[in-house]
Amino acid sequence: MPEEPDKPGKSDDEPAYKKWNVVVATIGSGVAVLVAINGLTGWNPLKELTSQSGGAPASESATSRISPSTTPEEAPIDDPPQRSSEVDEEPAVDSSSSPEDADESTETTAPASPRFQVTSSQWDGPCGDSWCSMSAIFRNLGGEGAGSATFYVLRPDANEYLARCSVVLNTTSENGVTSAGCTASSGWLQAYIRSHPGTTVRMQVTVDY
After folding, report:
1. Of 36, 95, 107, 148, whose Cβ has the fewest other Cβ atoms within 10 Å?
2. Which residues does 206 contact at the CB level (< 8 Å), separation at least 6?
3. Quick one: CA torsion of 169, 172, 176, 181, rounded to 10 degrees?
């Protein structure tokens, strides 16, 4: 059987400009389709493709820099340290070893001074030509001790004395009672009694300190 002659086929060695024409035509068709879609729906697939391939916008990039995953964690705040009660408490003072306490323990209270008070007074009979006799009872409101008192004979119409006398109060215990008296005489008293027959006089007793 005779062999058939080879049929002319397509050669792989086509001119390059034909291949580029096909590529350009394909791309042009795709762009036209995308433009048509954008015109109808407002959706721009090229923008999303560009953003996915080219990277995120600057605002998104800035946001990612301060994302919570990259924010440094705050250091935990510890509770304030408790004050030690051993520091706040004042140390106990040993009174037995304190020199001041030792001095105080050796000190003694000074005895109180006697303080007499007149409880009552009286005339010891009528006055004479130039004298008057008087006495009084005294109570000691202070410490044990002695004292003194003065008796005055006063004018009835003025606070002026005509005669006076002093007396020593015997040593008397605290809250104790003692009595004392004396006779006062003077020329003034004599002159007053003579110039005022039947007159009266007043008595005053004071305690000397």
Report:
1. 107
2. 118, 149, 150, 152
3. -20
Task: Report the percentage of the chain scoring pLDDT > 70.
Answer: 57
- Distance (Å, whole) CA 166 – CA 117: 15
Tell me the two tokens of residue 57: 């916008």
Alpha-carbon gap, residue 60 to 32, rounded angstroms: 31
> How far is residue 99 from each of residues 74, 91, 121, 126, measured CA to CA in Å?
58, 17, 53, 66
Nearest to 124 by CA among 183, 83, 74: 183
**Pairing mode, strands 131-140 and 177-185:** antiparallel
User: 94 phi and psi, to 5 degrees?
Assistant: -80, 105
The whole-number average pLDDT for the span 127-151 is 96
Model confidence, pTM: 0.49
Strands 161-172 and 145-154 turn out to be antiparallel
Residue 132 makes CB contacts below 8 A (sequence gap 6+) with 123, 153, 163, 183, 184, 185, 189, 201, 203
Task: For 23-61, write each residue's pLDDT tens digit.
Answer: 767 777 777 777 777 777 666 666 665 555 554 444 444
Residue indicated by tokens 């109180």: 112
